Amino acid sequence: MALRARLLSILFWSVIAAAFIGPGTVTTAASAGASHGAGLLWALVFSTVACLILQEASCRITVVSGSNLGQALVRQYSGRGAAHVIPLFAMVAILLGCAAFEAGNILGAVAGLELISGVPRRPLTLLVGTAAMLILSMGSTRLVASLLGGIVAVLGISFLTAAIALRPEPTALLAGSLVPSMPEGAGLLVLALIGTTVVPYNLFLGSGLSHSQTLGEMRFGLGVAIIIGGIISMAILVVGSATAGAFSYQALAEALAVRLGAGAPLLLGIGLFAAGLSSAVTAPLAAAITARSVLGGTSGAGPWSIGSWRYRLAWASVLGVGLAFGLAEVQPIPAIILAQAANGVVLPLVAVFLFIAVNDRQLMGPTGLNRTVNNSLMAIVVFVTIVLGVTSVMRAVAGGAGIPLPAERTLLTIAAGIALALAVPVAQAIRRGRRPPATGAPQMPS
What we know:
By secondary structure, the protein is mostly helical. The chain has one domain (3-331): Up-down Bundle (Amino acid/polyamine transporter I), CATH 1.20.1740.10. It is 77% helix and 0% strand. It has 19 helices and no strands. α2 (23-36) crosses α11 (215-240), α5 runs antiparallel to α13 (264-294) and α13 (264-294) runs antiparallel to α14. It is globular. The chain starts with a helix and ends in a 12-residue tail after the last helix.
């Protein structure tokens, strides 16, 4: 694989890093740094590995079988009674989540611009929304992905420069990255760090992007891009450790100015703007790709082609909803709560399906099947996604109903118990899928 091809592959797959490093990641990681210093870096290391494992599995399905994740879901559950609604539920939940969180993406980008300019918020909101629309209208996912790769580079340079300038203690960084610790009351924050990196719509986004890469090329570009994204998230956590007390963008900017000088808030503003803009583009893009894959469209000519009204309506709807709430300077809290609950179900559902699918000999062929090491790592990741999903649903239900949550330890124990209960049927499904076909039975080509 030539150097130019490697660089282009990394640039292409940087769209995944652009998707998971948004204002939510900046807020969560910086808050973790402000509260616990480098002590929770290990959670970002784990979430980066988990993201890589699930994204590789999702993209491998497309490369090996020729079907993207949405098409594989539809094929798996078609004609199975009530189960056929699962792909549609996943699509609706992801569209709802993208629309609900789009306002936060836009307002996050605006918050970054506010730190470095004196322009009023409303014109900045229109500017960010217009920029996202122009990028999405480019008519080529490869061009969009390449542009997002450039935005990720700006994002990375900003936060890495600030993190290095803070001169964190190397031994503290190493210990925080390699030695898991759980400070009192930090359990839900750890899950939030994982949840901002392992996002269900990114699995559909990565699988649905059209490309002609081989399995090896895909793995290289995707792996490097996600690792770079993880390093940027860790840099954000380190930057967050510069502040103490209640976290806010303004408090962090002031703390950085004291520690690093008057130019430091500029780095924060640029980084936050880049994070918000990249996610303001990838959320509508992921919504359109998810809808296309579940509803049977392809990226080529046809009713769901990139230039079709259906595809454009899907991303424009998400962008429009986010822009409307952004102009009103309102976070759509009820929609966000509903989206958190729905995506709390979708993430483990898709993760379990991926686990079963990459062990399905009929879908993947003998060469695309998971190996023992893959299965061991993926089992851990799927377990954590189920715990994350259950806690997200319980928190969303409690928030919507106005009732108090159980104690953190109780909440995590319930979620872990549900995850363990699901282990047996999942293991049985994997065992069935890996069985060689009976002699003379047809097998899907790989």
